[in-house]
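Supplementary Note 3. Input sequence used for the single-chain structure prediction.
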Amino acid sequence: MTLYTTPAEPRLCVRCDTWVLRAHADGVDIRVDPVPLDAAAEEQAVAEGRSTYDAVFLTWPARTYLEYRDEHRRARPRDGPVLRAHRCPRTSPPTLF
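The predicted structure, written as discrete structure tokens, is reproduced below.
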């Protein structure tokens, strides 16, 4: 089995119609919110059970890749933006009447 990685591309979320970045990282389909997180926001995202990713920029060709941030990467100093996995906003359940 080959694990592949693709560059992140802006897309609309099919469920909530908001902009996300979509990519494959090590064979996993990923959608992230395109808003960089500070350290406190990353801790909150991890506490909520959301994965975080490093945005890695390549200059030639100009592309952005996402790399999963495990506990070892979170312990190191950041060298670029950190993004969290997208979660559609919750809406109230439909009412019957």
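Helices lie at 39-47, 71-75. The mean pLDDT is 91.
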